[in-house]
């Protein structure tokens, strides 16, 4: 088992601590938080070992899970990598692209693996259709959330939209050609609502909308490709896959047949895969353990996290 520790014991940090304790792939050695009050409270309530410094925790681990505020990601991750320990780091990978690129170089220099916590990649609905999303040419994503003060220290693009950016980059796999975006600050010092149109070099267009002052929660994405429409509801963990194939010469009475102007007939049918239940955060942590043991590229590598941040920064710069 890999010895694991957590840096940062806020809301998400406590979830990671619980799941690392439950995981069969890790031995949770403890955690560190800059607040002694927090350290004492969590140690007393849950029995986790509280370390007195980042360095002491890092030294005791094989893998360190960085769940600190984004502004501290780079300094913590730099210590982890320079100590030769594998790094799991929450999204966004760092505050700036330059910092992310420095981490990439350090990871290669010290021969350690890193994974970024883009949890929607492990959402069972997305995983159920991931392999079926092939060369999409139009994508539409909506990620709406009710207001929560936690996370408003960064623009909504880095708080919410980056989930969809990462998911889209993973299936389009084409360089970004251009970005057009708009953002509005309503209650925070940074934009609370944002819309972005991303054009890729292969012709694909993605239209993303994110809001953290919505009246209801929504996390949906739709992928349009030749002969298929794929809808993913990340929140409800549901999918809808509508496909087309050449219509049979003698369709049954219930067949849905479309005919275009040239007389070509297509049959519409549903091909909805089963969506199993899972714990996406536990799955992403366990997937990283497997990558470490097998010495393979993590599903959401530091490179992937850097590219998602790069596109997010392009969007923010266009406001």
UniProtKB/TrEMBL annotation:
An example Gene Ontology molecular-function term: nucleotide binding
One Pfam family cited in the UniProt record for this chain: GFO_IDH_MocA
Name this protein carries in UniProt: Oxidoreductase
Domain of life: Bacteria
Annotated ranges, domain GFO/IDH/MocA-like oxidoreductase: 156-217
Domain Gfo/Idh/MocA-like oxidoreductase N-terminal: 3-117
InterPro entries (alphabetical): Gfo/Idh/MocA-like_OxRdtase_N (IPR000683), Gfo/Idh/MocA_Oxidoreductases (IPR051450), GFO_IDH_MocA-like_dom (IPR055170), NAD(P)-bd_dom_sf (IPR036291)
């Amino acid at each position: 088992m890999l010895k694991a520790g957590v840096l940062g014991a806020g809301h998400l940090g406590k979830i990671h601590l619980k799941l690392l304790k439950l995981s069969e792939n890790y031995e949770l050695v403890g955690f560190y938080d800059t607040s002694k009050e927090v350290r004492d409270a969590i140690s007393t309530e849950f029995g986790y070992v509280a370390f007195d410094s980042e360095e002491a925790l890092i030294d005791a681990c094989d893998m360190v899970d960085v769940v600190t505020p984004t502004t501290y990601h780079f300094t913590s991750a730099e210590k982890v990598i320079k100590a030769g320990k594998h790094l799991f780091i929450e999204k966004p990978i760092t505050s700036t692209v330059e910092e992310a690129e420095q981490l990439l170089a350090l990871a290669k220099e010290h021969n350690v693996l890193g994974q970024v916590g883009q949890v929607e990649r492990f959402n069972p609905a997305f995983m159920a259709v991931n392999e079926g999303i092939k060369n999409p040419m139009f994508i539409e994503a909506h990620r709406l959330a009710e207001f929560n003060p936690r996370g408003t220290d960064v623009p909504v693009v880095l708080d919410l939209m980056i989930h969809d950016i990462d998911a889209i980059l993973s299936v389009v796999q084409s360089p970004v050609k251009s970005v057009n975006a708009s953002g509005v600050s309503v209650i925070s010092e940074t934009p609370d609502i944002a819309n972005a149109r991303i054009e890729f070099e292969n012709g694909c267009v993605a239209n993303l909308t994110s809001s953290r002052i919505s009246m209801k929660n929504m996390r949906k994405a739709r992928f349009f490709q030749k002969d298929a429409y794929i809808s993913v509801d990340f929140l409800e963990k549901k999918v809808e896959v509508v496909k087309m194939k050449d219509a049979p010469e003698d369709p049954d009475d219930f067949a849905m047949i479309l005919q275009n102007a040239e007389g070509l007939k297509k049959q519409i049918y549903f091909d909805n895969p089963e969506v199993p239940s899972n714990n996406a955060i536990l799955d992403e942590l366990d997937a990283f353990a497997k990558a470490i043991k097998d010495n393979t590229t993590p599903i959401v590598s530091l490179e992937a996290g850097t590219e998602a941040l790069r596109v997010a920064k392009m969007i923010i710069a266009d406001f």
